[in-house]
Amino acid sequence: MPKKYDAQGTIENILTVSAELFLEKGFEKTSMRDIAETAGISKGAIYHHFQSKDEIINAVTEKQEEINATLLQNWLSEIETLTGKEKLTAILEKNLESQEAHYLDNLMSVRIKSAEFVLAYMQDCVNKDALFIANIIKEGIADGSLETDYPDESAEIFLLLINVWCDPAVFQGDAEKLSMRLKFLQHLMKSIGIDVLNDTLLRKYLELLQKLYPEEG
């Protein structure tokens, strides 16, 4: 009796292999043939699920977003007894230190050079990710550790600035420029009652950016 085709298993195999090849060879230099040969399947099997490399990289990105969402929930369960302010600082620290959360960073540094991707990324920051941060800010307001009349807007501007404005792949800047942007963001958040960016976090974030973009940073 023929073995039943495992569609989901094939998709997972394609995405795992594609992510590894994109990181190893680069997105542009990776062909559908490369993916098929490495995955041990035919090109036809790939095209049955994905019509192009763009569709594959979008699916790879979405999978990483799901992984990051799970990580965030796990981190929250570890720090549920902390104040809102302490939770935000802890989440930022855990995110910077997590290799799993940053697995695709080198790949994303290439994608973010696309204006279309940057726009979609900014929309996700405001429409999706900011909701998570805003909820923690509201916890901080309730427990007295944070003080702002604009929790939703504070979350939105924070993510837009740290993920886009402070990214040298979008807005060029050397190490000194990046450091000044981060210090300004620290000052801005403190001035609106969201004092969660300490000097250690700024240093770690600058180190991460310089590792990703040695020429820009």
Summed up, what is this model?
This protein has 217 residues and is mainly alpha-helical.
Topology readout:
Elements: H1 7-25, H2 32-39, H3 43-49, H4 53-78, H5 84-97, H6 105-111, H7 115-143, H8 151-165, H9 175-191, H10 199-212
Give an overview in words.
The protein contains 10 helices and no strands. It has 2 domains: 1-57, Arc Repressor Mutant, subunit A, CATH 1.10.10.60; 82-212, no CATH class. The mean pLDDT is 86. With 217 residues, the protein is mainly alpha-helical. The protein has helices spanning 7-25, 32-39, 43-49, 53-78, 84-97, 105-111, 115-143, 151-165, 175-191, 199-212. The N and C termini lie far apart (58 Å).
- What is the count of β-strands? 0
On the 0 to 100 scale, the average pLDDT is 86
* Annotation field: number of helices: 10
- β-strand amount: under 5%
H/E element order: HHHHHHHHHH
The share of residues in helices is: over 70%
Unreliable sequence segments? none
**Span from first to last CA?**
58 Å
Oligomerization: single chain
Number of domains: 2
What class do helices, strands and sheet pairing give? Answer: mainly alpha
For the sheet with most strands, the description reads: none
- Compute the gyration radius: what is it? 20 Å
What coarse outline follows from CA principal-axis ratios? globular
